[in-house]
Amino acid sequence: MQTDHSKTPAPHNTWISYAHWLAIIAMTLEHMFRFIWPESALTPWAQAMGRIAFPLFAAIIAWHLVHNSRKPALYGLRVLVIGAVSQIPYATVISAEKLNICFTLGFSMLALIAVERIKTQSLQVLAAAVVLILAAAARPYIEYGLWGLLLVPAFAIAFRHRDRLISTVPALTMCALINRAPSSVVISVLTGCGIFYAAHFSSSQLPRPPLPRWLRLAWYPLHLGAIAGIMSL
Fold this sequence. Notes:
The chain is mostly helical. The protein has one domain (14-231). It has helices at 14-35, 43-50, 53-68, 72-93, 101-116, 121-138, 145-160, 169-177, 182-201, 213-231. Helix 4 (72-93) packs antiparallel against helix 5 (101-116), helix 5 runs antiparallel to helix 6 and helix 5 (101-116) packs across helix 7 (145-160). The longest helix is centred in the first third of the chain and has 22 residues, at 14-35. It is globular and about 55 Å long. The termini are far apart.
């Protein structure tokens, strides 16, 4: 399933810094207004803005998996560790019945890695089918469900075949299916289109606003913990 990109220029990672900022800000604003100030007139706008966060996080992980990570399995396990640390504040603030988005992202990433490491094509197809069945079974317990689990692999396909416009269709389809409200579908799909545009035209000359690595890794459990603390006052 790997593609030889020797004839295409090496992609720049500049857009990733902006994507991190945008995803974190959108997610945090949505959670703050949704759970701390649910009656605010700004809450619907914050929730609409929040629809861009998950596609951004999925695209960031897929991009690193395809282009940057030398130890992808460890990367996936690190995402699951963040999910485990975040689960208690997530259960307090959002839902005690589901696993948080870090599990959605981590499981999908590790499943993709496992399938791609199988060298025999027939066995790879069989493994993919088994993974798909397991993902469908896990749907009620995972945030964003089956379509959320498929979003990282869909973005990975698009990034591996970035010279083919049709390769973006699965990811854009998943961006639509993870939402229900028509406005959310539009926002999520437009986010996907923006991701592909940024990834294709990203320039190494663009400034990169700093976002410390420790902050990227810790922000999800930290902001949920802070919101849980405020809600308990």
